[in-house]
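Structure in, sequence out. Go:
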């Protein structure tokens, strides 16, 4: 769920500006899943742009405080959300941890890196949400250590129905600074895409796994 239309559109505009998000409806990208996609998103690029990472950090902190107050700890999902998660934790003067996709095979074999205590209240930071499956794996790791999940906040979500169903099923309160629908609205408004490209991009979201140009 996106809470603030201005923030959603501004975030989308900035992501397009620095090419963290690329839209290419006529020459689609190929995702690791095998899907043909007219959009590619790499929000780690935000970290290379000081003014934009400050904007994103401040907006995330505002949303966290509005939704959850001040948690005990901030968690980032590796690897894409480690950087932005640390920035959020720093601004809130909170401890930071991050969650690997799976436990290390050597050393202490941690899945969660950093110091924490059971029963601490945690907000999880994500850079990007598609189906939500990798995020839920991270959340299960936190819950297995008896951390109390307050919610999850991402920079961007594709807004697939399956992701909302997955989060609801696992009792995860999820929000995002921006989403695919707001991105298309903003891209059209600033003439980044044409009306015809807008229609193609809208069609993709209806059935992304089967979509072909």
């Amino acid at each position: 769920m996106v809470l603030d239309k201005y923030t959603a559109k501004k975030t989308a505009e900035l992501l397009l500006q620095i090419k963290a998000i690329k839209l290419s409806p006529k020459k689609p990208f190929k995702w690791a899943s095998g899907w043909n996609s007219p959009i590619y998103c790499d929000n780690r690029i935000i970290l290379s742009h000081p003014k934009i990472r400050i904007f994103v950090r401040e907006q995330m902190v505002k949303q966290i405080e509005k939704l959850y107050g001040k948690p005990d700890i901030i968690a980032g999902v590796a690897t894409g959300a480690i950087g932005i998660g640390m920035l959020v934790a720093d601004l809130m003067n909170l401890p930071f941890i991050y969650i690997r996709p799976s436990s290390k095979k050597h050393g202490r074999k941690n899945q969660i890196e950093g110091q924490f205590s059971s029963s601490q209240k945690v907000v999880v930071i994500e850079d990007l949400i598609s189906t939500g499956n990798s995020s839920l794996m991270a959340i299960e790791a936190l819950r297995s250590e008896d951390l109390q999940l307050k919610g999850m906040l991402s920079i961007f979500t594709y807004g697939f129905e399956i992701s909302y169903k997955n989060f609801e099923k696992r009792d995860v309160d999820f929000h995002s600074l921006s989403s695919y629908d707001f991105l298309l609205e903003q891209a059209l408004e600033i003439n980044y895409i044409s009306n015809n490209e807008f229609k193609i991009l809208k069609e993709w979201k209806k059935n992304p796994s089967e979509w072909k140009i």
